[in-house]
Amino acid sequence: MHERKAVIASRIGLHARPAGIFAEAVGSLTIEVTIALEEESAEDAMDASSILSLMSLGAANGDIVVLRAEGAGAEEALEALVALLETDLDAE
Amino acid sequence: MQIFSGVGVSPGRIIGSVRQMPKPVSEPAKGERLAESTTPDEAAVLLRTASRAVHAELKGRSEAAQGAGKAVLESTALMATDPLLIKGAVKLINARTSAERAIWESGASVAEMLHNLGGYMAERAADVLDVRARIVAELRGVPAPGIPHSDTPFILVGEDLAPADTATLDPSKVMALVTSGGGPQSHTAIIARALGLPAVVAAVGVDELDDGTEVYVDGAAGTVTVGPGPAEVAAAEAWVALAATLAVFDGNGGTADGHLVPLLANVGGAADAIAAAEAGAQGVGLLRTEFCFLGRDTEPSIDEQVAAYRGVFDAFPGKKVVVRTLDAGADKPLPFLTDATEPNPALGVRGYRTDTASPGVLERQLAAIATAADGSAADVWVMAPMIATAEEAGRFAAQCAAAGLNTPGVMVEVPSAALMAETILREVDFVSLGTNDLTQYAMAADRQLGPLAALNNPWQPAVLQLIRLTVVGARAEGHHTGEVKPVGVCGEAAADPALAVVLVGLGVSTLSMTARSLSAVDAVLSRVTLDQAKELAGLALAAASATEARAAVRAHLPMLDGLGL
Predict the structure, then answer these.
(1) Which has the least CB within 10 A, A81, B267, B421, B482?
(2) Using a CB-CB distance cutoff of 8 angstroms, which residues of chain B are in contact with residue A15?
(3) Residue B377 burial (CB < 10 Å; 0-12/13-18/19+)?
(4) Which positions are annotated as binding phosphoenolpyruvate (chain B) (predicted)?
């Protein structure tokens, strides 16, 4: 199991357009990725390819989230996803 | 020749072919099971295929859309194939629930989860329910809900339009609107007038028309004729020529004998305001400030508001612009201001009343208006919606004074305000009649309900009496000071040329309407004298019903038929 933390950079938090961009990026991968707020346990982690789950997570600007994945290429995939979360996706 | 009769709400004579707005998707029966011959795996495949088709359809539309609409379509497209939504449904399918029922229930629980999160998320619940309905329609092989897509122009026929349909209604494709439900002040009527589309509402039976049927729509007479003949073809051709001559308003509203009645525009933003100024509007009688606030989960900053208001003020240098402060609630909910769980939102904490429940928003809005007005060449007036008492009017006037705004006024929409106009005008400098809500409250008839269309009609003599009493109150107040304060109308009533004449006869000093109606109202008003208008107002007041009032007035305005209005 690989695990990475990321700080949400989008000004409006991880919903609406930023959540859509992120969910699409996760959905294009062949591995499963989960997301949870830093203070939550791994069991409460949600499917990161679901825009509805991302929206219900309610991660605001500056919140820290934990991404988890396993399998081939997980480490590189998480690296790219962290970079995505740490970009202001609403500004583009 | 088959003719359907309804209420004409927006003039115009046009021939075209019918496209029915698909009926709302009905709920699959509770407990509906998978067919014996279908395995859960097969049903799950069908569901995934349907959800991908809906995703592709919405994604395709998002690529053609722009701005906020594009973003909404993009995220709605993603919801269609969302793992949370689909996995929830597949679980139910594995327990042998039908695919339609499974996605219906899964959508309901996701929507409930979003609703419980409140704010912005709660608003997205409607998107999930929309996606769910689209997937069920796809599984059933019936047309998706919403305005149909077509490459050729058509006449849209349906039960009634929702505010959300405005965003997807393409005026280059839709030639006219015909509905079996709705009333003169329904969303369909408001959308039609704003877009300048001929429209007939409450035309019972039109839902039975087949797609492709050729019909003639007369938006003034309120009729829909199937299989138009040479007479209808000639009338439609004549309308095209007439519409061109009617399209000019010289910017000087008044009666034939020179009684001035400034004709103003109702606008909802800078783009509207620029178009209204080009159409000759003599100012803005109603700036709906909701445009800054709707669709947001937080309050816009003061700077953002200043820029938005300034855009409107700049379109009218040297002219009056009446700003209505935020009118949230009822059909215009705002997550940070209104309570969506009220049992009766039209009678709830809406309009000015939200200032008591959530203080601060109004104060900041007034500050933004004052800043935008400062340094602008427009004459800025401010009014509060949903005022019921003189005490509220006085409190609002004090808030305006504190913000440095010198011309405070209030809307007269609640019957109590019409009855207390004299007292209210001791507190503020002007009143503006919002006839849509005034009618709904005077007649105790919901604006959106088709079956109540006859009650919900600004021609109701009781509504005209309330307007008369407002003018009487203003004159009584003016008697003490020597100057009568202005009484304007900014509701849909002002956009009906015949009713506009009655309003002037009742003593209303300005009329504000959608910019599209300025030329038609001017064309009729400029052909009558003030005395004739007073006489017609008397006829309308004395009528026993709205239908009688309208018929009596129209019988004395023969030019209406000639103008196709």
Answers:
(1) B482
(2) 120-121
(3) exposed
(4) 288, 324, 436-437, 447
Contacts 24+ apart (CB under 8 A), A74-80: A74/A2, A74/A31, A75/A2, A77/A29, A77/A31, A77/A33, A78/A2, A78/A3, A78/A4, A78/A33, A79/A4, A80/A25
What ipTM, to 2 d.p.? 0.89
Q: Quick check: B83 contacting A, CB < 8 Å?
A: yes
Q: What is the CATH number of the domain that holds A78?
A: 3.30.1340.10
- How many angstroms away from the CA of A89 is the closest CA of chain B? 13
**Residue B202 to residue B185: CA distance in whole angstroms:** 11
pLDDT digits (tens, 9 = 90+) for B105-146: 999 999 998 888 877 777 788 889 989 999 999 999 998 888
Across the interface, do B121 and A55 touch by the CB < 8 Å criterion?
A: yes
Of A16, A53, A58, the CB nearest to B84: A53
Q: Does the annotation list B413 as a binding residue?
A: yes
- Mark yes or no for CB contact A17/B75 under 8 Å: yes
| CATH classification for the domain delimited by B247-563, as one of 3.20.20.60, 3.60.15.10, 3.40.50.280, 3.40.50.150 | 3.20.20.60
Considering only the beta carbons, identify the residue of A24, A50, A58 that sits closest to B84.
Answer: A50
User: What are the residue ranges of CATH 1.10.274.10 in chain B?
Assistant: 40-140
Q: pLDDT digits over A5-18, tens only? A: 999 998 878 877 88
